[in-house]
Amino acid sequence: xxxxxxxxxxxxxxxxxxxxxxxxxxxxxxxxxxxxxxxxxxxxxx
Length: 46
Ligand SMILES: [Zn+2]
What we know:
By secondary structure, this protein is α+β, with helices and mostly antiparallel strands. It is built from one helix and three strands, in the order βββα.
């Protein structure tokens, strides 16, 4: 999930999986997809 947080009067987008902050919602959502993949374990073939 991506949550919004207020810092210094600006809205930031936080990845709830790892706590990373992004200033762009689309960046946070793009990261979240990769972050979820990491939590589920590697899906790529080694
Ligand atoms: Zn993350």
